Amino acid sequence: SSSACAAAIGCHKTRPGPPRTMSGVKVYVGNLDPDVPKEELEEEFTKYARVVTTWVARQPPGFAFVTVETDRDAEEAIAKLDGKRIGHQEIRVQLAKSKGGGGGGRGGSRGR
User: Fold this and answer.
1) Do residues 27 and 65 lie in contact, with contact meaning Cβ atoms separated by under 8 Å?
2) Residue 20, number of CB atoms within 10 A of its CB
3) Cα–Cα nearest to 74, from 56, 55, 52
4) H runs (alpha helix) in the chain
């Protein structure tokens, strides 16, 4: 029955926002040191978010996608990890851009 779904995850309607996978919110990691193993990146994320999956690019290297459970997990990970040095480089962490139609993101920092 469908009541199991409601009990387990709340089955809320999806609202516009960050791109969603079947389960979770995808976060883009850029400027990633190619020598940093997937496990190390995942370990950093698990300090601030519940990680669903981690995928690290190798051809070409330098970026990754980490899927976390909720919008809040994504926001926390971005706030804590964007600009953090992992390996020899400071990583860039942001919501992954969804493939497909336009859609305004939230406004970034202005001026100052």
Assistant:
1) yes
2) 14
3) 52
4) 3-9, 38-46, 71-81
Q: What digits encode the pLDDT tens for the residues 72-81?
A: 999 999 999 9
Q: What is the pLDDT of residues 78-99, one digit of tens each?
A: 999 999 999 999 999 999 987 6
Cα–Cα–Cα angle for 90, 110, 67, nearest 5°? 45
What pTM was estimated for this model as a whole? Answer: 0.69
Pair of tokens at residue 82: 């964007």
Count the Cβ atoms, other than its own, within 10 Å of residue 62: 14
What whole-number distance in Å separates Cα of residue 91 and Cα of residue 104? 24
CA distance 59 to 64: 11
